[in-house]
Amino acid sequence: MKESSSPAPELSLIIKHSDIGGAPVTGQITADETQREALAVRFDLPSIESITADYRLEAKTDEIIFTGVILSDLHQACAISGQPFDVHVEEEFNIIFVEKTDSPTGEEEIELASEDCDVIEYQAAQIDLGEAIAQTLYLALDPYPRGPDADIMAEKNGLKSEEEAGPFGALAALKDKLG
């Protein structure tokens, strides 16, 4: 019986642990047009015009430190109007890769400093820097993007603003009724 494998990531740059060595390695990842189009589909975006990540990779005893900055120009659809609008992303990242172990969850502790944001497990002595960049870009996106015409469209369609819809807005409306 053939095992089903998951599809390859749209933006993939596999690095073997043995290729890192003792000195930090720097580099740049740039997504080509095909990769950007596939990521736009995956992230439900109208388009991604560019993705570039400058990085530093350093192997420690039990972890690999992956730091740098992602720059991306893309289009998101406004949550109110549905119209695409330009978005520029500049996101610093600090990812720690740790080797996946077979020990049950909770038995092994990983100590993190406050500035550490992400821990990703790897196996077979290789890590995928491209997929880590793609995931970091996705997490940097506004989940409820508001385009330049969002307020006009919301008012036109009778939608309340965040202030009006929240708990303090309800209190203010009650005060107006009583006052």
Task: Give a short synopsis of this structure.
The protein is 27% helix and 34% strand. The protein has 179 residues and is of the alpha+beta class.
List keywords for this structure.
single chain; 179 residues; alpha+beta; 2 domains; 5-stranded mixed beta sheet; two-stranded antiparallel sheet; 6 helices; 34% strand; elongated
Verbal overview:
It contains six helices and seven strands; from the N terminus they run E-H-E-H-E-E-E-E-E-H-H-H-H. By secondary structure, the chain is α+β, with helices and mostly antiparallel strands. It has helices at 17-20, 33-42, 129-140, 150-156, 162-165, 167-178, and strands at 14-16, 25-30, 47-59, 63-77, 84-99, 118-122, 126-128. The protein is 27% helix and 34% strand. The model has no long low-confidence stretch (mean pLDDT 81). Strands 2-3-4-5-6 form a five-stranded mixed beta sheet, with helices on one face. The protein has two domains: 14-145, no CATH class; 149-179, no CATH class.
- Which overall shape is indicated by the principal axes computed on the Cα atoms? elongated
- Largest sheet: spatial strand order: 2-3-4-5-6
Number of domains in the coordinates? 2
Helix content: 25-40%
In round numbers, the mean pLDDT is 81
Beta-strand content estimate = 25-35%
Please count the helical segments. Answer: 6
Low-confidence stretches at least 5 residues in length (pLDDT < 50)? none
Total strands: 7
Structural class, from helix and strand content? alpha+beta
Largest sheet: 5 strands, mixed
Radius of gyration: 22 Å
Query: How many angstroms does the end-to-end distance come to?
Result: 74 Å
Would you list the SSEs in sequence order as H and E? EHEHEEEEEHHHH
InterPro entries: YceD (IPR003772)
Protein name: DUF177 domain-containing protein
Pfam family, one: YceD
